[in-house]
Amino acid sequence: MKVFQKSIWVAGVLAGTLLSTGCDTDDDESTTTVAGTTGTDDASETSADPDGTTTADDDPGSTGDATSGGSSSGEPDDGTTTGDVATGSSEGGESSSGSTGGEAQFEGPGCGVAPACDRGVLNGSVRIESAADIADIAGYTGVIGWVEVVDSDLVCLDFLACLQTAGRDVTIFGNDALQDVSGLGNLTALGTQTTQQGYDEWDGTLVITQNDALEEIAGFESLTAIQQSLNINENQSLVSVSGFNALTLIEHNLVIRENPLLETIAGLDALEVVRDNFVVTGNPSLCVSDINVVGGTLEQPPASGSTAANDNGC
Description:
About 5% of the residues lie in helices and about 25% in strands. It is mainly β. The protein has one domain. It has an eight-stranded parallel beta sheet, with no helix packed on it. It has a five-stranded mixed beta sheet with strand order 4-5-7-9-11, with no helix packed on it. It has a three-stranded antiparallel beta sheet with strand order 1-12-13, with no helix packed on it. The longest helix has 9 residues, at about 290-295. The chain is globular.
């Protein structure tokens, strides 16, 4: 079992450079609270998280080498340890994957898996790299640390149907065969609150990057808030972001970039708050008018943003 220790209102076309960083700082006096759960994080994990944090170069939301910290950047590091099962709800949600109940039917590794949601909360982090690793997380209703599905042969994520909470990043990265992510339809809370010297900080970024067969991002219909960032980058076949219908809050950054076939992000129309950076760039098939619909629902302008290099003709 592989278990590991381990961020813009749009009115017209904006131009800007995203700079966002996130870093978990170890502190003996710090406390952590997982969104959607109670208690402290006894695991004291530090994550080396793939893709998601944009760096100080001129390429917002870009993918780079892995760096340690609470946000995601680059490819994942490797490492192993063990995780304990903490007390948690044994009642999971029903599978919402398109491969089991949606319009699209998929076949292959990870499809059609309907775990019993009876394993509580995993006090640790987990990386899934193949179908052989599914048993490491199937049936858990929560994970205190981070969840990675990276460089795998998986087609679907149905085995994640029980997952309701994740304390740190959820990363779906570099899965060349992946076609369906709607197995995460029961995820309701993403992020961990940490108190450092009197200041509250949050971890929790959702990364969906470099999954070349993925045409639609569906699911995530139970997720209402992301405590760090949402990053959807460099998915070569992605056409539609139709999930996230309940998502109203992104505490830091929305980054959607370099998806050459992307035509719609209508699933994000419910967004009300993106506090730091709204960066939707380099998607040549995505109409700026579609981006402005999303930006028009925001309650106030984010700190900065860019909608460059999309389809300005519609």
